[in-house]
Amino acid sequence: MSQNPRDRTPFVAPAWVLELSGEDLAEIFGATTLSRGRAYQRQGRVHALRVVDNELTALVQGTHPYRAAVAWDPFEADPAIPDDIATECTCPVGEACKHAAATILEAQTVASGPPGPPAAHGTGTVVPLPTRAAPAPSWEDLLAPVVAEVQPSSATQTTTAPLALHLEASRTTTRFGSDELRLAMRPMIRGASGAWIKTGLSWPDLQYADHGRRNDPRQRSALVALMRAHQARAPQWQRLAETIGADALGPALWPLLRDVERSGVALVTGYQGKERVHLRSEPVEFVLDVTRGAGGQLLVRPVVDLPGAAGLELLGNPAHGLVAKERAELHLAALARPLTPAITTLLNARELAIPEADAERFLTHYYPALRQQATLRSSDGSVELPEIGPPRLGLEVRFLDNHVTKLSWSFRYAVGQQVHTVPLLRGTENVSRVVRDVGGEEELLASLDVLDEAPGLRVPLPGKSRLGVVIDPVLWGWATVQFVRDVLPELQERDDIDVTLIGEPLVYTEADEAPLVEFSTRDLDEDDLLAGADGIREVSPDTQDWFDLGIKVSVGGQPVPLSALLTALTRGEEQLLLPDGTWFCLDMPELHTLRRLVEEARALQDEDRGESLRINRFQAGLWEELVSLGVVAEQSERWQRTVGDLLALEELPHPEPPAGLTASLRDYQRDGYQWLSFLWEHELGGILADDMGLGKTVQVLAAAQRAHEQGLLSAERPMLVVAPTSVVGAWVREAERFTPGLRVVALTETVRRCERPLADTIAGAHIVVTSYALMRIDEQHLTPLTWSAVVLDEAQAVKNHRSRTYQAARSLRAPVKFAVTGTPLENSLMDLWSLLSISAPGLFSSPQRFGEIYRKPIESGSSPELLGTLRRRVRPLMLRRTKEAVATDLPPKIEQVLPVTLNNAHRRIYDTHLQRERQRILGLLGDVDRNRIAILSALTKLRQLSLDVHLVVPDAPESARPSKVDVLIEQLVEVAAEGHRCLVFSQFTRFLKIVRERLVAEGIGHVYLDGRTRDRPRRVAEFTDGDDPVFLISLKAGGSGLTLVEADYVFVLDPWWNPAVEAQAVDRTHRIGQDRTVMVYRLVAQDTIEEKVVALQEKKRDLFAKVVDEGGLMSAPLSADDIRGLLEG
To answer: Which PANTHER family match (predicted)?
Structure first.
């Protein structure tokens, strides 16, 4: 072993080298290769041993110097696993060679010697060679491999032993029991006698250049490539066999054999390789020769251009080559294309005879399939083989009624004079022998870009389409138009598409004129008006308000079915087709409005009447919007007299105030009187919703006086006024004052307590006034009577349509009913429905339908556009004026919040209860409706604690005195000293009494009124006619029926989340007759629930104003979010 004299650095072997055992090395290299490597190591052939980045390298002297490298994968856990060792060498073998084995053995030998000095740092370590010194290779030895690579092949041939490949064909039975042709191959070498011998040469030996004989590297490389290809494909047990089988290589056999032959390796067969093997340089192909035999039958024989064809055998499964024996020689050829099992079976049959009777069927059904897999010819010209054309598309178009078009696609193949039709989708044929050109079909389908011009022709649905082309589409309506106009002409012009039309397409044209909409109303038929019970037929009052609504649409004189128009609009279609092919655009706002209005009209009917439509005379707003879209063709006289005049009210002559009215009406009051008079005259009810303090009572009395003078109101049919108990007396006084010619009777006792018939009590009265409580109790006595009119004052009392009070009011019999209230909405849109269902029955349908159509979408905010629709429907039947708009001479009202700071003791008690109640309330919010009473009770407790803790905690210390009372007393003393008079409101009468006690203690004069006060008029007179500066009033008692313009200061001690309640109380003084600025102070305890209530008030007040005055959203009951907001902070 030699060494480099310039590098004496000691070698340090990697740990993995030392852990490789002899068994590991034998597994890596094999026993033979390892033995040869050990000989090389002992002979000192390993030089320049290094370790670089965990890789062991060396220069090993063989026939030529070779560079060997060995490495271990450091990411594996076990360095002793042989599979983790990789080897590489520049020798012909390339890997796992004796040079790599010698490198490892040398490293182990050097590492096991005496330790040397520490290795120097660097990229590698050079092995010191202290023993078994051998001469270093000379310069000629090092350059010899370079010269050898450029030596002419003739020189190589003169110094190497030639190689041969022995091939032997034989039949063998596979382990699956089938009989197959096997082509066995093994290497041979020229022996000393010149004969081909196999002794001393095996497939593994080819990996080594010095297996004992010198071979041509090109020949050896070609055979090694063949061997390695076999090893990559064959099972493990076949890899080191003496012969290798061509069956494992498949079609890859043929290029490998040609490479072997081109390298100079002789292809031989027979004993000692004495016979030649002829390898066809180009692939061959079977030809099926079709000739006509005796009797007209067709004979199909496989023919191939190959010597020895008589002994022809197929190689491989599927067959990819041919093997033929001619005398002792073999002829081998690759097939131009592998054979399918079916063709292989056919070829093995050698000859196929087809009777003359089946000849035509063979040529039309079977010949195309054979032609796809083999070449056919008629060598003697006795059979004319048909031409097969490329695929064509077939399209059958069937035109049906109502613009329905059915299409059916197929492919058509011409075989000679016959044409075969196959479905568009492959695999759906019942029986078909046509071999389909899949590529040609898909190329045709891909060229149908024109199908994108009409919907329904391209849909990528598995099983329903191919390449997106729908197999059997059905087109409807406008899709038919687009197909006929944009698609069909181009398809008919194509040379590769056969279009067949069944029926004639219409000529589709756009209408020259816009649609004309005509409306009409008609009185219901007698059968509709009559309702029978026990055989008695009488006019139903409910049906008298209804009319048949007719809607006709036409284009150019051609009628347009309304149902088809509405359906198309609902579906969002852009055009509508008429039966004759005329079409018009639906993108017109008027048509979409028509659809919406018709849907609304249907929804307002409580029962489904199919295509027929009805409209109620209270639905004047709906009719007004309808006729704005077209023309009125016909109107019922009764409809025109009521609805027509109502919509044109401003253009009608305005009646003068009645002679019997002693009041002087303001301009807006005159308008209200005229509006009420018109409704009364036409038996239409409505809502007078003027702001509080604008004199709604006198407007109603003026209308009643006119009705009396026109004969619509009499002592036989008086007007019934239902009002809160506290207001009954005010109605009597106002009527006696402004309509002295009308006799007024107040019902202050129940019929039972009065002990006389109701008819006797009201005999001779023109106006009867009762309370809501008595109306509910005496419903059975009031309902049978017929009133000229019913007036519901402070009509919010009937806002709950589930209450007995509402039911009683609804059951009263009168041709006209009026709801009078300054707050038509308090909690929900259902409040408005309740009032209108009494005053204008039929304007809206059932509460459930109204909730679905209006309340839910509007209150949720999902359909804000419905707000405008709702206001338009209500507008003709609800009159509302605000003080700001009409009472310009009314002095201003200034409102502000007066913050109150709780004292320390009050604060501690409030905060303690706040935390407790907050947790309790938040736990109940999961089901607000079910827990509403408990939630409101807890919130009320917090509001009371904000006022005075003693209202909730009677034994609270005196130090927790109510700061709000102190602030109030200071204010009252100051304003009273300046000559002002004050109204003080609170919802809690107990707190009012605490305030009263302080007023007494301070010597401030006052009057007290709550719901339990019996002589209400006397207490009111004490304040209005007296000098006391303060009037203490509970919100319930002072919310209605009072006119207290003598006061100009208002103090609200506890805010309530329904601002309408407070507004009613405040407007007791800010109303007609007030000539001073009204100051309103809301005392609010800081950092308490009262601040949250004020914020909620502002939100609700804004929303309330929008629906009543501006068409926006209205207030709703306390929601879970509202309650959470009250408890925040």
So the answer is: SNF2/RAD54 HELICASE FAMILY
β-strands 298-303, 352-354 pairing:
antiparallel
Task: Write down the pTM of the prediction.
Answer: 0.53
List, as one string, the DSSP characters of 904-920.
Answer: HHHHHHHHHHHHHHHHH
Distance CA 712, CA 714 (A): 7
- Whether 432 maps to a domain, the answer reads yes
pLDDT reported for residue 153 = 41
Spatial CB neighbours of 930, under 8 Å, sequence gap ≥ 6 = none
Helix or strand or coil: residue 881? coil
List Cβ neighbours of 821 (8 Å cut-off, separation of 6 or more). 687, 688, 689, 792, 793, 794, 795, 796, 835
Residue 87 has pLDDT above 70, yes or no: yes
- Model confidence pLDDT, tens digit, residues 692-729: 888 899 999 999 999 999 999 999 999 999 999 888 98
978 and 1026 share one domain: yes
Alpha-carbon distance of 340 to 801, in angstroms, equals: 85
Q: How far apart (Å, rounded) are the C-alpha atoms in residues 64 and 1029?
A: 131
- Segment holding 17, helix H or strand E: helix 15-19
Residues 6+ apart with CB under 8 A from 121: none
- The C-alpha atoms of residue 986 and residue 81 are separated, in whole angstroms, by 95
Report the distance separating Cα 199 and Cα 297, nearest Å: 57
Answer yes or no: do 482 and 515 share one domain.
no
Structure tokens at 960: 């927790």
Pick the range with the lowest mean pLDDT from 445-459, 514-528, 586-600. 514-528
Residues 6+ apart with CB under 8 A from 133: 1, 2, 3, 44
In the predicted model, what is the mean pLDDT of residues 93-106?
90
Considering the domain architecture, whether residues 931 and 1014 belong to the same structural domain is answered as: yes
Which of 1079, 740, 1068 has the alpha carbon at shortest distance from 897? 1079
Residue with token string 């106006």: 767
Return d(Cα 1041, Cα 724) in angstroms, integer: 8
Beta bridge partners of 474: 406
**Cβ 1046 vs Cβ 1076: under 8 Å:** no
Domain boundary among 585, 612, 647: 647
Q: How far is CA 14 from the centre of its chain?
A: 64
Across 472-601, the runs of DSSP E, i.e. the strands, are 474-476, 497-502, 509-510, 516-523, 530-533, 536-539, 546-555, 558-560, 575-577, 582-585
Tokens of 125: 């370590």
The whole-angstrom separation of Cα 646 and Cα 103 is 116
Examine residue 327 and state whether it is found in any structural domain, yes or no.
Answer: no
Phi, psi of 628, deg, nearest 5: -70, -15
Alpha-carbon distance of 127 to 109, in angstroms, equals: 11
Same domain, 122 and 252: no
Percent of the chain at pLDDT above 90?
Answer: 32
Taking residues 786-806, what's their average pLDDT?
Answer: 92
Query: What is the three-class DSSP state of 97?
Result: coil
CA dihedral 609, 613, 619, 624 (to 10 degrees): 160
Q: What pLDDT, on a 0 to 100 scale, did the predictor assign at position 158?
A: 44
By the 8 A CB rule, do 566 and 600 touch? no
Q: Which two tokens stand for residue 1077?
A: 């600025």
Total tally of structural domains belonging to the chain:
7
Mean of the per-residue pLDDT values for the chain?
81
Residues shown for the chain: 1129
Cα separation of 798 and 850, whole Å?
17
Same domain, 934 and 1038: yes
Exposure string over 703-718, b if 16+ CB within 10 A, otherwise e: bbbbbbeeebbeeebb
Identify whether residues 781 and 643 lie together within a single domain: no
DSSP 483: I
Q: Give the model confidence (pLDDT) of 1007-1041 as tens digits.
A: 999 888 878 888 999 999 999 999 999 988 876 76
DSSP 950: G
Q: Based on the fold, state whether residues 132 and 204 are members of the same structural domain.
A: no
Tens-digit pLDDT profile for residues 896-940: 989 999 999 999 998 988 888 877 777 666 666 676 777 777 788
Q: Are strands 744-746 and 631-634 parallel, antiparallel or unpaired?
A: unpaired
Range of the domain at 485: 392-506
